[in-house]
Amino acid sequence: MAMEIYVWKGDITSVQTDAVVNAANSSLGGGGGVDGAIHRIGGPKIAEECRILKIKKYPNGLPTGQCVLTSGGQLPSKYVIHAVGPVWKGGEYWEASLLETCYKNILQLSFERAFESVAVPSISTGIFAYPKELAAPIAIKTVLEHKGQFPRKLIFVCFDQETKDLYEEILNKSGTEYKEGISSF
Ligand code: ADP
């Protein structure tokens, strides 16, 4: 069965899925943007799980491109996949391949956990300053190339209309069917 693609505009903390992806940073210590919102709405349990993961497994930080799982705390979603995207440094520091690796690892983890639905923001395009128009094709291409049976539903969460238009344009150009969704997947 082919993966269903959704493009949904809104705040990722209000989405109900098996897992939402956090645009985290290496320290797993919280931050702004998606990270700030997830910890604010998800409550202290997520931060505590991140703190323990950091001490036990990632004392030097979670490397760029990697991801780890915690519970969803008080979020409507069951789990959070904390993924570290690359910081944009002009494009000559393997940013594109690191962003692709990041999405691949999210998909691999979702496959291993047999998640039905996974919501992912536009990783790296906020505080990490990756140009949206360069990040969106990588996000979409990597998702469309994923071969696993899970996740069955992949929701691209777009925080603003510009990002949503961009995702829809790329999906339309590639002839990929997608749906809008209603926050519960
Ligand atoms: P990064 O540090 O990886 O750049 P950010 O969280 O700063 O991560 O931003 C990633 C993208 O997520 C940006 O396009 C930003 O506009 C968007 N974003 C910010 N807050 C939210 C939110 N609550 N829900 C969904 N997307 C968000």
From TrEMBL:
What is the top-level taxon of the source organism? Bacteria
Q: Which sequence ranges form a coiled-coil region, renumbered to this chain?
A: none
SMART domains recorded:
A1pp
Against SUPFAM superfamilies, the record matches this protein to: Macro domain-like (SSF52949)
Family matches, as PROSITE patterns: MACRO (PS51154)
Which Gene3D superfamilies does the entry link to?
Leucine Aminopeptidase, subunit E, domain 1
Name the chain's protein.
O-acetyl-ADP-ribose deacetylase
Question: Which organism is this entry from?
Answer: Leptospira sarikeiensis
